[in-house]
Amino acid sequence: MADNTMSISVPCEKPIKVEKWKVKQGAFVSQGQILFLYNDSSGNSTGLKKFKAVRAGTIIAIKVKEGDIIEPGKSLADIEECRHPTVMKDMCAECGADLRADERIKQDVASVPMVHSVPELKVSEELALKLGREDADRLLKDRKLVLLVDLDQTLVHTTNDDIPPNLKGVLHFFLRGPGSQGRWCHTRLRPKTKEFLESASKNYELHVCTFGARQYAHAVTELLDPEKKYFSHRILSRDECFDARTKSANLKALFPCGDNMVCIIDDREDVWRHAANLIQVRPYSFFQSTGDINAPPPLNDEKSKMISGKNGSLPTQLPTLEAEPEKQETPKDKGDISVDSKENKSSTKEKNDNKIEVENSTETEPKWVETCDGQIEIEDADDYLIYLEDILKRIHLHFYDMYEKMGNNHIPDLKFIIPEVKSEVLANSSLVFSGLVPTHQKLETSRAYLVAKSLGAEVTQDLTDRTTHLVAVRSGTAKVNASRRMGEAKTKVHVVTPEWLWACAERWERVDERLYPLQRGGQSLARRPPAHCSSPPPAPPAPAMRKRTPSGRFMDTINPLMSFSSDDIADMDREVEDIFNESDESSSDEEAKPPVDDDDDEENLSEDRLLALENTNISQERLQEKENSSDSDTDPDRPKKRPRPSTPPSDDDIPPDDDDSSWNLMGAALEREFLAQE
């Protein structure tokens, strides 16, 4: 405080007389504004002089009165310099100072952008906290919460592909970009969107939060809210996001007092870093060939542009139209498009080019109906917003019930309330899984377990007296048979498919078990939950460290035989000896017979055993070469033992010598080598 306070002293070396003050104590003055009028105390001066403020600030104290004679060096008043609480493009909105020219005040400049669509307008942290408290008080007074709404694949689905111009229910708008011809966008509103916004606006203050560009975000919001009664100016686009990959970085600036009253609906939870106050909705997809056209860039390569096409997100830069924007108007009927109508009619009849399919939970073929006015109407069975509306009502009711119980002194946190509301879905239920969790995975780390626990259910490994549901992938398992026998007793166990659990997680309600029964002889293909109804994945296990061998050589770590125990190696040695002995004993009989392929004898061996035998043969051949070389050095007249051929014997080959002692020595040496490596 003291560093920002400046004292106003007598402006000359002679005493002066203060004739009149032009400002009052507590008033804000700008630079160059007149503070008071004064005159020479001797009375010789004929005119009044003006004293102007050197810096902008607030008059915190006036120490002299009008008519007083002030000696040189005496303080007249104290002024507190402007703190620049509001800044617009490096210029203070209070005093008009250019903050770029003053290096001394750059550290204290306002840095919190609280306005969604104007990131250049920033306020100080002190002012941000004050405005945040005022917003919270206003929401509590109106009994409302804050709802951040995503656009793409949450409320709308947009494509830039060529579509039939007479497709009913699709809205068209043109986006102009700097240095480009412009782009056409075709948007389909999710069914019941208007009703959903009307209902949600009664309990929530709605904000748009999208990764779409600013022009796109405002254009789509104009389609959703043409009267600006739902969203007003509260639109946060990609251009205002602090981070290109996450939306959560802006929460601190938008809500400086905390996000306790903020609820989020989005089809992706990764862009919010798996926030606890997020409701992950089922993605809405109307145009089959298009995903999320405004998806964030990939993590590995920020500058890479994804190829536009089917089954994926399209690039941020939308494809340009071949037709001139002045000639091509927004299509409302067939005659509004400056494209040949015959080509449009032929294109709609092609099956795989321009056909648009509706993705729904039942995966049924969409029904195409051509109306009397020539419009193409497609049946859209998406009804998710009905369930989402009910979820938001329950969250709002639970929040204010807890707020009243706390005596209106503390504000509850939605990051705890939303999981609590979700945990009431399957409360007092006990689940057992059959065929849903892989055998090598622990139950507590599986996705199905995390989903069930987030819904408040108890999950056990085996059937108990408290078991209420058996979620099974296929019938005929031991648990399914046991549960059917338990059904004959007092407690009935509902045997359902995994789709029942996923439906409960999607709708946040206990779905009727009769809709998802496990039929006898039936099998479900939905072992894994959909992305929108799964809990955050568990932390990945730490990477396995490579174990070092006693020798410390990397080559020993990749030897497949190192994974076998000593007993396994001994069994393989005995097996190899038996095979070689049988081959030596029958070698004399095989001379008169046609050659036989050795691969037929090993056809039924396992892949690991074949690999082990192959490495064993190589090692034995090397040992035999060493022994033969040592024998040749000591006794050159001694006949050398020929190694066993790796190819089938021919009629010209000489049968090997029948010497069991040499093979036994080789086997023992091989065993010692592998035991020493362990």
> Order of strands side by side in the largest beta sheet?
16-15-11-17-18
Low-confidence stretches: 300-365, 536-547, 553-558, 592-607, 638-658
Instruction: Could you tell me the CATH topology label of the domain at 124-280.
Output: Rossmann fold
User: What does the largest sheet look like?
Assistant: 5 strands, parallel
Helical segment tally?
15
Q: What is the arithmetic mean of pLDDT?
A: 74
CATH superfamily of the domain at 124-280: HAD superfamily/HAD-like
* Integer-rounded radius of gyration: 40 Å
What is the terminal-to-terminal distance?
Answer: 73 Å
| CATH hierarchy, class of the domain at 124-280 | Alpha Beta
Number of strands: 24
What general form does the structure show? elongated
Strand content: 15-25%
State the helical fraction. Answer: 25-40%
Q: Which architecture of the domain at 124-280 does the CATH hierarchy give at level 2?
A: 3-Layer(aba) Sandwich
Structural class: alpha/beta
Structural topology:
Blueprint: E1 5-9, E2 16-21, E3 28-29, E4 34-40, E5 49-52, E6 57-62, E7 69-70, E8 75-81, E9 86-88, E10 121-123, H1 125-142, E11 145-149, E12 156-159, E13 170-175, E14 183-189, H2 193-200, E15 204-209, H3 214-224, E16 235-236, H4 251-254, E17 262-266, E18 278-280, H5 341-349, E19 368-370, E20 376-378, H6 384-405, H7 414-422, E21 430-434, H8 447-454, E22 458-460, E23 469-472, H9 478-487, E24 494-496, H10 498-507, H11 554-557, H12 566-585, H13 587-590, H14 607-634, H15 660-677
Parallel strand pairs: 11-15, 11-17, 15-16, 17-18, 21-22, 21-23, 23-24
Antiparallel strand pairs: 1-8, 2-4, 2-7, 3-6, 4-5, 6-8, 9-10, 12-14, 13-14, 19-20
